[in-house]
Amino acid sequence: MKQKTNNELTTKNESGKNESIELETRKLYDLGVLAIDPGTNTSGVVTYRKDGTISGACPDMLNADVLEFVQSLAHEFVIAVETMENTYGRSIDMQTILTLEFIGEIKERCRAHNGFMVRCPRSKVTHAICRSYKAKDKDVRAELISRFGEPGTKKNPGVTYGISSHAWSALAVAIYAVEQLAIWAPGNLPESLSRLA
């Protein structure tokens, strides 16, 4: 997919001919973000607004339910998915293969419902949160708590109350995606944010 003008991308249709797709980047920026930390059978999921409101979180949503969630929210939320950018020459195991296949299913579900998906490389997500490419999950969680405050208790919940496990990673993905949308809108969109027609 190649950039054509500020708000127009060129893609090829099934017959191989180029088609122009108008992209309203300001509209994208105004959408919320459905962030996903994908796994083999379950995934961490967070719904996040650009004003910093966390409207929902689940650390271990069944992948079949994630796909249904993507389908139902494709018109309200940009779908942000954490991805692995490099295996660094190492062989990959079946768990990784299944996760990659699931990411492909998310992409297809977005395509079927005219949604927008942004790929969020893990190293860039951790760098956006911790300003370090070497940050671990515990470092990301600590930084998010420093930003949003302690989760709190049932009687006195904080902003991140209820977030645990993979939902912390999903929240980091959401923040990265919102920051990138702020950078891109209302100008050019990179290829990593594409309308899946």
Q: What is the end-to-end distance?
A: 11 Å
Mean pLDDT across every amino acid position: 80
Question: How many beta-strand elements?
Answer: 9
Radius of gyration: 17 Å
Detail the poorly predicted runs.
1-24, 186-197
CATH superfamily membership, which one? Ribonuclease H-like superfamily/Ribonuclease H
* Overall form: globular
CATH class: Alpha Beta
Succession of helices and strands: EEEHEEEHEHEHHHE
**Proportion in helices:** 25-40%
User: What's the CATH architecture name?
Assistant: 2-Layer Sandwich
Description:
The strands form 2 sheets. This protein has a 6-stranded mixed sheet, with helices on both faces. The protein is globular and about 40 Å long. With 197 residues, it is of the alpha+beta class. The protein has one domain: 2-Layer Sandwich (Nucleotidyltransferase, domain 5), CATH 3.30.420.10. α2 runs parallel beside α3, α4 crosses α6 and α5 crosses α6. The N terminus and C terminus are likely disordered.
